[in-house]
Amino acid sequence: MTEKSGIVSKIIYKNESNGYTVCAFETDGIEETIVGYFGFINEGTAISISGDYINHAKYGRQFKVESYRYTKPKNLDEIQLFFIFNKFEGIGPILTNRIIDRFGDETIDIIENSPERLLEIKGISENIIDSMTKALAKRTTEQEIEEEQVKKILQYGIPLAHATKIYRTYKDKASYMILNEPYNMALDIEGFGFRTCDEIAMKTGFSVSDERRMLAAIEYIIMQYQNATGNCYINKDQIPGYIAELLKIQEVPGFDGMLEKLQLDRKIVIIDEKIYLRSTYIAEKDSSIILHSMKDNVRIITGGPGTGKTTKVRHIADECIREGGEVKLCAPTGRAAKRIKEQTGFVAQTIHRLLGYSKDEQTGKFSFAYNSENKLDCDLVIVDEASMLDLFLLHALLKAVREDTKLLFVGDVDQLPSVGCGQVLKDMINSKFFDTEYLNKVHRQESGSKIIENAHKIRNKEFVDLSENSDDFIFDEVESSEVVLSKIKNYICEYLPKRFKGVSSSDIQVICPSKIGLCGTVELNTKLQEFLNPPSNEKREIQTEKRIVREDDKVMQIRNNYDIKWEEVDSEGFVLDSGFGLFNGDTGVVSSITANGNGLVVRFDRCEVDYPTNLLKDLEHAYAITVHKSQGSEYKIVIIPIFDMPMQLATRKLLYTAITRARELVIIIGSKSKFYEMCDRDDEGTRNSRLCSESYLP
Question: Among 72, 372, 414, 478, whose Cα sits 20 to 30 Å from the Cα of 543?
Answer without folding.
Answer: 72
